[in-house]
Specification:
It is a single chain. The protein is of the alpha/beta class. It folds into 2 domains: 159 residues, Aspartate Aminotransferase, domain 1, CATH 3.90.1150.10; 239 residues, 3-Layer(aba) Sandwich (Aspartate Aminotransferase, domain 2), CATH 3.40.640. Helices cover 42% and strands 15% of the residues. A hairpin with a 2-residue loop joins strand 2 and strand 3.
Length: 415
């Protein structure tokens, strides 16, 4: 059989919709200045799909630094990986600043979050080691765990009884293999918006002797008194052995980092294949990230505005009877009941007739019969955006319940 022949018969659970969805539901083009309102197919929409939490992505001070750094350095410098020829004082400064902010001895800068955490998991674990992880962890963590040749023990999402059961199993396997135990969870789960049960998990560390890796992409910059993340918010930042986050959310940039004890970070610096064999982050991005972190640390009004908007949005939706699940972050999931086809009709109505653009999540990411509309409030939104969105959601919810979308959905079929 030809390697590519199977793709013609099975395009995958999402790929089977590609010809119907491409350019509208998948791979849509948002155009114009980054902000709470952008253009989609030539018409202005209120946008709730951009993880620009603090509104820094298009801030004039940020734009100025990005522009000046690009003019001075260009996008090519530095060339090569940091280990070979791509090290600069600015990369080291960003690492020092991040380490101080997230209260860790040292930090390693990463080119990308997805590849970075995959490589972290791969570097930390040998065949003898055991990994225990939350079932709702992000795909990047799953891809890292898939490379692990030892025992893999998932626990039910944020279920401490399930965690305890699996950590006990891990301890038994550890006695057989002589390896170590790594627990992986998230500070904020990006779909549900709930925080990981970090405080409950660390209570087991002394008895079971495991190490803990936390992916806090959505918590960094948004949670905690200073914005240092979910660990700070829950009072357990010191108990997190490896703290990971990206620049793609609160800092509206490219790159990521991992922080921990100096000797552990030094090990990763010399063993993390995704960095050893990859070109260093370009200088304008690195300098731009230094500025973004400075503003994140010194301008608390951005986080305050973000939470004002998030609280007003969530309060307004709940008052209208919407199910937001257990979110305890700015991530605002709105759960509805309907088919994939109904979701497509609903989203088209929401975008074309109510001028609201948000992400839609359906099976296989969530169970069949469920529709998840995920809203990401930012500091750039205002009360008018919120009020208009709540009214639009009330209207589409009524149509969904009344069966209007079901009738139109009968004509939608996957390719």
């Amino acid at each position: 059989m030809d390697l590519f022949a199977k793709f013609l018969e099975d395009r995958g659970p999402l790929g089977k919709w590609s010809r119907t969805a491409h350019g509208y539901y998948t791979f849509p083009k948002l155009e114009g200045e980054l902000g709470s309102r952008m253009k989609f197919q030539g018409k202005e929409k209120i946008v709730w799909s951009v993880n620009n939490y603090l509104g820094l992505g298009n801030h004039p001070e940020i734009r100025k630094v990005d522009e000046e750094a690009s003019r001075e350095w260009g996008l090519a410098y530095p060339m090569g990986s940091r280990m070979m020829s791509g090290e600069t004082q600015y990369h080291e400064q960003l690492e020092r600043d991040l380490a101080e902010f997230v209260q860790k001895e040292d930090v390693q800068l990463l080119n990308f979050g997805y590849q970075g955490i995959m490589s972290i998991v791969d570097s930390l674990l040998t065949r003898k080691d055991i990994v225990v992880y939350d079932k709702d962890c992000h795909a990047c963590i799953y891809d890292g765990i898939r490379m692990h040749l030892g025992k893999r023990l998932p626990y039910e999402h944020n279920d401490i009884e399930s965690f305890e059961k699996q950590i006990k199993k891990a301890k038994l396997f550890q006695e057989q293999t002589g390896g170590g135990i790594l627990v992986i969870t998230e500070g904020v789960f990006g779909m549900r918006g709930d925080q990981g049960i970090l405080k409950e998990i660390v209570a087991y560390k002394e008895e079971y002797g495991f190490r803990m890796l936390v992916d806090d992409a959505h918590g960094f910059g948004t949670l905690g008194e200073t914005g240092a993340g979910a660990g700070e918010a829950q009072g357990v930042q010191d108990e997190i052995d490896l703290y990971f986050s990206t620049f793609a959310k609160s800092m509206a940039s490219i790159g990521a980092f991992v922080g921990g004890d100096k000797e552990v970070i030094e090990f990763l610096r010399y063993n993390l294949r995704s960095q050893i064999f990859a070109k260093s982050l370009p200088m304008p991005i690195t300098i731009g990230n230094i500025k973004r972190l400075e503003m994140l640390r010194t301008r608390p009004e951005f986080k305050a505005k973000l939470w004002e908007n998030a609280n007003n949005l969530q309060k307004g939706l709940r008052e209208r009877g919407f199910d937001l699940g257990n979110t305890s972050s700015c991530v605002t999931p709105v759960y509805m009941h309907g088919s994939v086809e109904e979701a497509m009709v609903l989203v088209k109505d929401l975008r074309d007739n109510y001028d609201i653009f948000c992400s839609v999540v359906v099976y296989p990411v969530i169970p069949k019969g469920m529709i998840l509309l995920r809203l990401i409030p930012t500091a750039a939104h205002n009360q008018e955006d919120i009020d208009q969105t709540i009214e639009a959601f009330t209207a589409i919810s009524d149509k969904l319940k009344n069966g209007e979308y079901r009738k139109q959905a009968e004509f939608i079929k996957p390719e």
